[in-house]
Amino acid sequence: MSHQLPTSFICLEHDVILENWNYSKTSLKTLKIRDLSSEVLEKFSNKTMFYAQIFTKQSLNLNMENLNLHFKFRYGKFYLFLIANGYVKSTGHVDVIKLRIDIENYYGNELMKLSGFNERIYERIVDNPLICNIHFTYIETIIFINFFFNSLSDFMKCNLTLPTGEIGPFPCLNYFCKSFNQCNIQDAEIYFDNQKRRLIIYFKCDQCYFEYEKIFRIKDWRLIVTRFYKTEEWKINVLSLIYNKGFSIEEASSKLHINSIEIEELLKENEREKWFKPEDLSVFSRTPINWIKRDKQVLLYLKSLVSKGIVLETPKVSSWIYMTLDKTNIKAELQYLLKTNEYIEKHKLFNEYLYNKSK
Predict the structure, then answer these.
(1) Strands (DSSP E) found in the chain
(2) What is the CA radius of gyration of the chain?
(3) What is the share, in percent, of the chain residues with pLDDT greater than 90?
(4) Residue 23's pLDDT is what?
(5) Which among 95, 96, 94, 144 is positioned nearest to 117, based on CA atoms?
């Protein structure tokens, strides 16, 4: 029975190497003892026999369909293992020389050779670290898992771990979802931006399908920004908070953890498009405005737009600022917003400089 296990390569009963045996009447991946009549048996090292036994015992409990081993170990998850264990350079590339030396020292050259470990795997890791492991055999997958973890059981218990140390499952950040701030998101899609040296991780709630992403800078694995994909349903829910449930813009801003200017943009957009029919238009009537507080609020929002532009490496962020002015009442208020007005003028001059330079 042990000869049919996907990670067996040594017969533990006779301490000899196994070879593949293709038999047309069975779908089992069966191995048989090699013909040793003309060979001189060499005793395996204790290290080789130890890991051969470990792999075989793990395979006894390994059901590829139920445990989803390849699913848990595929794509970006493997790259995150490499990050967590210090095998990714500041350029984003994997230090395969160090990885190879450490693996060979860990298991020993004898076991690596007997297992049929394909050394071209290291080339695949360099070429594309996110999907290199789709070509791993069962034994190669187990070799990496045991190298990164103490056992297969430890690996099965481990959830997705981000470069910042945050461990899944991850929370839904949609205020209008029943799972809001509850850690129900089990999986994530990982993308490597080689040109801009970033790692982008997408999360999607399986209850409300709300999506957001986290962008990490590869140089030091610092979280750059968390961005949300705001659907039409989300926008309608925001408007309903204000029109139907009587929330003020400030109250909605506090609940949703977004700047109130963004809600004002949404209200103005709805006023123009008429895609949400409000029950009450009193939201547009203002109480006496504290212009100092308003100036600070608007300035912070415009600076956040510029910060996003820096993350995206888009120098012409002034166009984003002007779009915001058009979508809200800010343009009519600029005479009272002294610091905001000064900030906008600086970006206007910078935009003119870029235009003249391009000419």
Answers:
(1) 10-11, 16-21, 30-33, 170-171, 183-185, 189-193, 198-204, 211-217, 222-229
(2) 29
(3) 13
(4) 59
(5) 144
